[in-house]
Structures are given as structure tokens and as C-alpha cells.
Amino acid sequence: MRGEYGAVGVGMMFGAFVFGLGMQLGGGCASGTLYTAGGGNMRMLVTLAMFIAGSTIGAYHLPWWSAQPNIGPVPLIEKLGLLPALSLSLLVMAAIYGLTVLLERRRHGALIAGAPSPHRGWRRFLQGPWPLLWGAVGLALGNYATLYLAGRPWGITSAFALWGSKIAMASGLDVAAWPYWQGARAASLQDSVFRDVTSVMDFGIIVGALLAAAMAGKFSPSWRIAPRSLLAAVIGGLLLGYGARLAYGCNIGAYFSGIASGSLHGWVWVVAAFAGNVIGTRLRPGFGLTVERGSQA
Prior knowledge:
The chain is mostly helical. It is 66% helix and 2% strand. The protein has helices at residues 10-26, 30-38, 42-66, 76-80, 82-108, 122-127, 132-150, 158-170, 186-190, 197-215, 227-246, 251-260, 264-283; strands spanning 7-9, 70-73. A two-stranded antiparallel ribbon has the order 1-2. It starts with 6 loop residues before the first strand and ends in a 14-residue tail after the last helix.
């Protein structure tokens, strides 16, 4: 088994920044894009297509970005020891939570309550919405299962680069000559996507979202997308894909799994992606997109 460790440097921070910007324009992160697209959101299908394209372009450009100034991977557990590294991470999490609560109460008077559900017990489990605690436990168990079955933490966006590269290769491009597809990744380019663990998990998210939307009676796809919103989906998707390749993943592969692995790049990713999100929220109205309460907190 191995953790997720990324080099902390210019390329990673730029990638996380543009990923955060893309989240606001595209309408979600990597897992969110898969989930909402699977649930029947046609706009997010556009975001997903552009996400794949951007990730493929990012894979092509990655060697140049990797050569930019960086301090290399910084595994906190190796540098500080298990207990100090874990304590530091928990302390930072507590500080972020406390600051978020303080800002929310100062600006709005109270915290936003969790989404209510008319269902109880198994019906709520099947039809939602879940309490936040359920979701947190589910994510933790899912990441543990991924680590056990795949030998590495959860990731999503490497599959997008694979899908896009396979499409490019089928179109006649010599993708196999790209530095990104040398070494251990070379076999993935030749094998079926169903032999790629990340791809299969991504397909599972899409199918699971479709089933969840159907069971909740919320599957109602519509192709009517406002032109400005469509443009935001195209730009946002490209930024999401490109940024994810440079930043060693998305908020799952880089942030969630990076911090869980005790890697400094996961925390640096948060700061850079947050900055991109802040700017993205200010650009949303120009594309006819709403700015929800708390999105700039």
C-alpha cells in the first residue's frame, strides 16, 4: 500500500488554483461532476466532457510544469513522526472549523441547518438527503476500502486523463510517446478502461448517482441550458481537468487523500484552491450563475 504524495511547488499550486476557479464556473468538483451528471444534469455532462479534455491537455503539459521550482514531496509522518503529524492535522482541521463557524455566525447570525428529510430510517438511507455525519463516515469507509482493494487512497481524475488520451489515440495522435504515459502508466493506455481501478470507481459513481436520483424521484434531465451558463461549463470543465493534472488530483485525490496520507501538498492544495474559489464566486454572476449563501465564507 502507498499514500498520495505530491511535490509542493509552482505547478501544484497553480493547478489547485485553477481547479478552484473551475469548480465555481463548472458547477462542482470531480466527484460532484460525476454525481450530478449521473443524476441527469445535462449541463454537468458538458462540464464532464471538458473536464476530460482539460485533463488530457494537462497530462501533455505536465512534464513542463513538473520542472518548475518545487521542494518535492513532504511526507509529514516521516518528517515529524506519526503522533505529531496527526496532532498537527487535527489542530488545523479544528482551527478551520472554528473559523468557519465564527464567520458564518458573524455574517448570517446562525449556522445553516442540515437539509431536512421527510423520510426516516431505511427510507432516508435510500432516498436521502443524508446527514453530514453519515456522509463523512461513508467517505472514510470508502477511502479505507479503496486503500485495501487498490493499494492506494481514493482518486478520481487520473481516469479522465486516461479516457481523453484513449480518445486522442483513437483519433490518430501518438499519445503513447507523451512522457506522461511512459513507465508504469504505459500499460493503462493499452488495456481496457475496465481494468483501471479508478475508471471502474468513477463509473460506479455515475451509476450510483443515477440510481439514487431515480429512487428519490429526482431524475429529470433537461437539455435547456442558458448560453452563458453553457460557456461557464466549458471554461470551468477545462480548468478543472487541467488543474487536476498539475495538482496531483482534485479535492479527493489531492486534498482528501493527500491529507489522509500525511502529505503537506494536501494542505497547500486547500489554500490555493480556496483562493481560486474566491475569485470564481466573483465571476459567477457574469455567467448568469447564482452565488449561494456562504460560498464566499
